[in-house]
Amino acid sequence: MDVKERVAHFKRATDRLKNEVGKIIVGQGEIVDGVVTALLAGGHALLEGVPGLGKTRLVRTLADALDLEFSRVQFTPDLMPSDITGTKVAIQDDAGHTVLDFQKGPIFANIVLADEINRATPRTQSAMLEAMQERSVTVGRQTYELAHPFFVLATQNPLEMDGTYPLPEAQLDRFLFKLHVTYPSADELHTILDRTTGWDAPKIEQVMDQQGVMELRHLAMDVPVARHVQDYAVRIVMATHPTHKEAPEIACRYIRIGASPRGAQAIIVASKVRAVLDGRFAVSAQDVRAVARPALRHRIIRNFEGEAEGVSTDSILDDILRVIKESG
């Protein structure tokens, strides 16, 4: 199978996946594209929005459309790290001796829904760090490898809501994308009501298995990136640093810490997936611009002035994308 046929197969497979998700999720096309992109890029996604917008339903629907092991963790203030990773329990072996046996927690799955992740304390949130970055879990002196693919899809409520804890910066940096889930339009709300207030519910078909996901991921990672396109992504990331010479005035004024190298990595791998989703086997500057906001919005830390004046990271990124041109 040549490159054109492989790219065409990629597009057909992902279109089928998005169509199955679209049977349940009305609208939110940008969010669905972002979640699928993160999955195929080998990253994780953080969905933020007020309760009732279908964040959890989106994740469950995606899991139903994929023949992958799925687990869900409902984060609450009293959740403990061992409730996620698992713990060692005392059992009797065949000889009657008491031994410690490791009982795996819900983190041992292909798709893990971390529901309302910012309802738990930072100590419990940090239990996800090793799994999200290293794809492994260490308990005591023993390290356990996680299955491939491993994809964390976390939902969180806006920090202004009661009973929420901000995620540590190190954990936010492990997410490939942060996606904002918005309210549906009036027409979309009518469609939601038509689909959810009767007896009949749409049936979701499984369209992809573990091997299929990994094959698509390998294809996406083979997509070449021209040097000038990569340079464009690098200059966007560098412009988020207030001391950099290309940083626009709004970045110098409102940013305390800019995006890490993981931000540049996220832009490039997500741009590769976006290119193949569009039926192309080459990354363009437009791909970089399209993924810059979800890849960087959670990696920028505003200073006191930026928080006090309510300047959003998206506003800062909009100005950076306006100032930084495709050719340096």
Describe this structure in words.
The protein is 45% helix and 17% strand. It is built from 15 helices and 13 strands. Strands 3-6-9-1-10 form a 5-stranded parallel beta sheet. Strands 2-11 form a two-stranded parallel sheet. The longest helix is centred in the N-terminal third of the chain and has 20 residues, at 3-22. It is globular, with a radius of gyration of 21 Å. The protein starts with a helix and ends in a 5-residue tail after the last helix.
Short synopsis of the structure:
The chain is an alpha/beta fold and 328 residues long. It has 15 helices and 13 strands. It is 45% helix and 17% strand.
Features:
2 domains; alpha/beta; two-stranded parallel sheet; Rossmann fold; 328 residues; 5-stranded parallel β-sheet; 17% strand; Helicase, Ruva Protein, domain 3; single chain; 45% helix
- Strand percentage, roughly? 15-25%
Structural class of the secondary structure composition?
A: alpha/beta
Radius of gyration: 21 Å
> CATH homologous superfamily of the largest domain - what is it?
P-loop containing nucleotide triphosphate hydrolases
Ranges with pLDDT <50 over ≥5 residues?
none
Task: Give the SSE string.
Answer: HHEHEEHEEEHHEEEHEHEHHHEHHEHH
Distance between the termini: 37 Å
Mean pLDDT: 84
Q: Strand order, biggest sheet?
A: 3-6-9-1-10
**What fold name goes in the CATH topology slot of the largest domain?**
Rossmann fold
Major beta sheet, specifics?
A: 5 strands, parallel
CATH architecture of the largest domain: 3-Layer(aba) Sandwich
Number of helices: 15
Number of domains: 2
